[in-house]
Amino acid sequence: MELFQTADWKSEKHVPVIEIEKSDDLVDVKVVVGKEIPHPNTTEHHIKWIELLFLPDGAKFPVHIGRTEFNTHGESTQGPNTSTVYTEPTAVFRFKTEKPGKLIAVSFCNIHGLWKSEAEL
């Protein structure tokens, strides 16, 4: 079994979608899980976190840009899916770099495990 699962994000709701916007020397990266097909966000089935890494061209190891955790999935003291508060699995990262390279987004579903996608910067 593979540690990370991958697929086309247009047909698989677990794949993190990487959207890149560059301005001057800043890079804004938005990572969305469930862009085309919404991912459930319930107490029983949800995305726990998204991480972004950057592997500069010629580097041996990636740089960890950041991690966003999603901790509100409708649970409350009244039971599962009774709250009106649900986080959506979307994260935005901003950083500077002078080098091109590869962006690597990883997300974790509490039922379906680790999912990964990559994009060139």
UniProtKB/TrEMBL annotation:
Residues 7-117 form the Desulfoferrodoxin ferrous iron-binding domain. It holds the Pfam family Desulfoferrodox. Gene3D superfamilies: SOR catalytic domain (2.60.40.730). InterPro entries: Desulfoferrodoxin_Fe-bd_dom, Desulfoferrodoxin_Fe-bd_dom_sf, Desulfoferrodoxin_SOR. This is Desulfoferrodoxin ferrous iron-binding domain protein. Keywords: Electron transport, Iron, Metal-binding, Transport. Belongs to the desulfoferrodoxin family. One of its GO terms (molecular function) is iron ion binding.
